[in-house]
Design a protein that fits this description.
103 residues, 38% helix
Amino acid sequence: MRVLGATAALVLLAAVAGPSGPAFAQNEVPHVNLLTDAPSKTPEEKEADAVKEKAYKESLKKIPDAKVPSDPWGVVRSETPKAPPKAASTAAKTKTKSGSNAN
């Protein structure tokens, strides 16, 4: 009876310890090709793509070049930019302590 109990305990222990081992997905590299091998294009498809590409390039040539940069807020701004204010002297920035130093 003791042998049967010990065997059952070992089986139970092996079942509990089994999932804590390495995962099955990590053991082997999957042999799955995610990139499908698409058939090459037919001559008609290649010709249609060339026509589309040519039409696209022609449409890009029809777009006029911007000669003057667009500035919608130009009338709101002043003519010359104002100079930044000069930095105050460092002596004015330091604070003088008054009172005791007790915290």
